[in-house]
Amino acid sequence: MRTTAAVLGAAGALTAAQLGLAGAASASTAAPTEAACPMEVTYLSKFYLDKNNWVTNGGLRFGLKNVSKKQTFKEVSLKVQNTKGLRFGKATVTTKGARITQKTNQIVKIAAKTLKPGKSAAFKVSTHMLNTQKYEVKFTVYGKTSAGKKWACAVDQGTWGTVHQS
To answer: How far apart are CA 35 and CA 100, in angstroms?
Structure first.
């Protein structure tokens, strides 16, 4: 039997207990990026678990998308770090031009030399959920403008998961 873990992206996300769903989980979305930051962290809004609490269909997917219409960025990287309840397995790049630069059971980092407007760098990682009710990852983003200058994006791009910090 597959367990559904639906991720609710609303700011006031209901908990699984409030919804009355056995085996389901809610999650907060990543912290909003700065207004001047044309990068968007992408992730699954819904995923399924097998009977051993492994995410099905190859695992969780994370990425970084350039939502700018004109700006190209260099040396762009996205680091996804487990902070609670997950263990990462094999990571695979799902977009052309990107590569995995760091991989442990706690961290996966993807990098792209250039990220043109509308393009993204993404990966999937097989994931074992140690606790389906409490899990969280932290996003960290680095990069430069095409001129080699520091960009306007915050390094800390927030978290994703069910752990709500006060």
So the answer is: 28
What does the pLDDT look like over 45-76, one tens digit per residue? Answer: 889 999 999 999 999 999 999 998 888 889 99
Whose tokens are 């809004």? That residue is: 45
pTM value > 0.85: no
Type of residue numbered 118: G
Separation of alpha carbons 24 and 133, rounded Å: 8
CB 154 within 8 A of CB 33: yes
What is the Cα–Cα distance from 121 to 112, expressed in whole angstroms?
A: 7
Burial (CB < 10 A; 0-12, 13-18, 19+), residue 150, is exposed
**Distance, C-alpha 26 to centroid of its chain:** 15
